[in-house]
Amino acid sequence: MFDIMDFGIGEFTGDSGSDSSAPSGPYIPEASECMRCGMCVSSCPTFRLFETDMETPRQRIRTISKVLVEDVPISAEERGHLDNCLQCRACETACPSRMSYGSLFDQARMKLQQTVARPRLAKLAMYLIEHKRRRRMLLPLLSLYLRSGLRKPLRASGLLRKLKLANAESLLNEPALGSLAGIYPVGRRQRQRGRVALFTGCLAEHFDRATQRAAIKLLNTIGYEVVVPEGQGCCGAIHQHNGCSAQALKDKNIEAFYELEVEAVIYVASGCGAMLSEYQGDDSETAGWFGRSLQDINDFLLAHWPDTLEPAASNLNVAVHEPCSQRNVLKNGRAVHELLRKIPGLNIEALPDNQLCCGAGGSYMLSHPDNAQQLRNAKRQAIEGSGADVVVSSNFSCAFYLNADRAETALKLVHPIRLLADRV
After folding, report:
1. In what order do the strands lie in the sheet with 413-414?
2. Of the four listed, 41, 251, 291, 394, which is most buried by Cβ atoms within 10 Å?
3. CA gap 35, 134 in Å, rounded
4. What gap in Å lies between CA 261 and CA 393, rounded to an integer?
5. Contact 316, 389 (CB under 8 A)
6. Cα–Cα separations (whole angstroms), residue 92 to 44, 64, 275, 328, 354
7. Is 360 helix (H, G, I), strand (E, B) or coil?
8. 304-421, what's its fold?
9. Residue ranges of the domains in the chain?
10. Which of 88-97, 302-311, 355-364, 373-382 comes out lowest in average pLDDT?
11. What average pLDDT does this structure show over 325-353?
12. What pLDDT is attached to residue 37?
């Protein structure tokens, strides 16, 4: 009964024959068919917040069924509970039936979005994420604002709250204004082993430049020339998870990297990687190439690390935060631990409650700030109680949110490759 629940639209397999009268669409069981094992319930962050059955994956699946299969209207209350979902996909990992919750959720969100007008600020945000040149034009103004001393009085005035910009403004930090170079060659004294391309993303390109430079340094150090194609853009995750089509962004990225003669396409942010790993393009050949070439920076470095290269020793206590995208989609969290073990003397432990979402959830931190803040507070408590000297995370969005608006003395999250890059 449950072995077919992980199929998407148009892949119903209730009949192995070719009967044209067979139903189509995703198979979503009736409530009475649910195994009621409670696995998805206990893994869901919003259930932990509200402790009500309406805030569980199994109830959201009932709502998704109404949208995609029954094609009936849903109530405002049902829509609210559906929108509360962080899309962390912990339920997919916990579900014994392997239901493709994330895919079904995105399809339902897209269908619902066709009947609702998107707020102007949301439209503007989507536009800036999609258009790199327009986004870059705003960065000098943002930098000027952060350096001008206007931040404190503007916050106190209440104007940001009236404009519904207070949550976004609280997350800001200094952006990188310049662009990365197109090519980073291997040093003259090193033997070049190959050539790879680096995926930089949209916001991470400006607000996580230190991590991207660390990736380039490490890749050069182990003998790989790095190409950064200008034609790349946002991975499309924010668009897709908010009910907008991301196909144009996907096609643009596939095309930008397919033109290069590289051995691999490397990403550093697991959130982007989760989206990139599920790309399906119009051209099966190019999309197939992209999928085969895509690699996480931690995996790539671990697989190609030279036996003769030993980083400087360290006695730091490191706590590893495992983002939902890495834990529930990419499922490669062990690579971080193995890679950090290249540093002699490092004490590495998993951050307590790694299975619980930090609240960032892409744009969730902006659309549901109260829910997100409660989850962030819990994650910060785990960080402070870990006894770690350093906390690492492979996802830009998680680190960006957990680091935002904190005391200068608080522990900051950094990407694990930054620890490694500082010691080679």
Report:
1. 347-350, 317-321, 390-393, 413-414
2. 394
3. 50
4. 30
5. yes
6. 10, 15, 16, 7, 16
7. coil
8. Rossmann fold (3.40.50)
9. 31-113, 120-170, 183-303, 304-421
10. 88-97
11. 96
12. 74
